[in-house]
């Protein structure tokens, strides 16, 4: 492999100065970060956006746009805190409709309602400028949809996930109930193709997490995407 070795920082710096586009892709979620995640249920390294600079040798000031990716509901593989997990028919519905099985391990993912607290925290920690919201179509047909807007910890209202394992296990989600939609969002490629309540759901998510939806995915097909903001646009 020696012929493929080089000074990565130099190659990237030259490309950047020449006006080339550089894309860094994270492999794991924010809450698996060893410093900012749900320790000890984390991986062995940093997974937040800042690691792209530290790991590649590109200066942090050179990163122009951070795109966060999250589903229209919440999932987790394996152990660890999951305040909005639904161990009921809703969880089964989301898992079955969303085909929620780990790509590598094949393990069944735990499923629950959208947790705006966790996503809002991820937006702050990563410096996210826009969100790619995926699997909106999985929510089609539900009479009502719940969104976690905050937590209660030992009777006190909080708007963040506490750091200690004990406190994480004790938090209780505070839900807001939204009207679902009977029409289908599957395959939508423009806002006009979406049911009105689906649009309201997306807009409300934006308000709760403090970041705009830059890209909206409505099926497993690549083309079934509503591009709101091009991350590569100057």
Q: What keyword list fits this structure?
A:
single chain, 234 residues, alpha/beta, Adenylosuccinate Synthetase, Chain A, domain 1, Adenylosuccinate Synthetase, Chain A, domain 3, four-stranded mixed sheet, 6 helices, globular
Structure at a glance:
By secondary structure, the chain is an alpha/beta fold. It has two domains: 64 residues, 3-Layer(aba) Sandwich (Adenylosuccinate Synthetase, Chain A, domain 1), CATH 3.40.440; 163 residues, Adenylosuccinate Synthetase, Chain A, domain 3 (Alpha-Beta Complex).
Provide the β-strand percentage band: 15-25%
- Name of the top-level CATH class of the largest domain: Alpha Beta
Which CATH architecture of the largest domain is right? Alpha-Beta Complex
Strand order of the largest sheet: 1-5-9-10
- Write down the domain tally: 2
Q: What is the CATH T-level topology of the largest domain?
A: Adenylosuccinate Synthetase, Chain A, domain 3
Structural class: alpha/beta
Q: What share of residues is helical?
A: 10-25%
Note the overall shape.
globular
Terminal CA distance: 36 Å
Rg measurement, Å = 19 Å
Count of runs of 4 or more consecutive helical residues = 6
